[in-house]
Design a protein that fits this description.
Layout (H helix, E strand, L loop, with lengths): L2 H8 L3 H9 L7 E2 L5 E2 L2 H15 L4 H12 L5 H34 L10 H14 L17 H6 L2
Antiparallel strand pairs: 1-2
Helix pairs in contact: 1-3, 3-4
């Protein structure tokens, strides 16, 4: 099948298929006499495998490792499990980070009056990082934070 058909069946765009070939994630496709790429059923299965790995958040490099493990019938499933659990740990850490960001923004939004006045704790908080960057480093300098321990709460109580 041609690249368009392979893209349709695998759910991987033609552009990404060409990229995966270029970086060696998948072998270069056979070419017709006219120079068109030709993909076999196993090629499409590999593309489906890569798409699923990418959908689960694995990097291109990790997808390549998983693909190699999938093709290696002598592999130990422990290797695959270790890789998956390591990825789960990274995903959970990212989830925690995103939740902290959301909490910070919700907290700041809760303290913003949202009226026609220019005072805005959201912008004030964002501007604090600019002011901190302009000052020489001190041991008491605030570190980036997530969560509700922002200075907006102290500003809102002084209004």
């Amino acid at each position: 099948m041609n690249i368009g058909q392979a893209a349709k069946f695998s759910g991987v765009s033609a552009k990404m298929i060409r990229y995966y070939e270029q970086i060696g994630l998948i072998p270069k496709a056979l070419r017709s006499d006219a120079g068109y790429r030709h993909y076999s059923q196993p090629d499409v299965h590999s593309l489906c495998f890569i798409r699923r790995a990418r959908d689960l958040g694995f990097s291109v490099e990790q997808s390549g490792v998983l693909l190699a493990l999938w093709h290696d019938r002598d592999r130990a499933s422990a290797d695959v499990k270790m890789m998956a659990l390591s990825h789960v740990a990274r995903l959970k850490a990212k989830i925690d980070e995103l939740q902290a960001m959301a909490q910070t923004l919700e907290h700041l939004a809760d303290h913003c009056r949202g009226n026609d006045r220019p005072n805005c704790p959201i912008l004030a908080d964002l501007a604090e990082s600019i002011a901190a960057a302009e000052q020489p480093p001190l041991t008491s300098r605030r570190t980036p934070r997530f969560g509700v321990d922002t200075r907006a709460s102290s500003r809102s109580s002084s209004r």
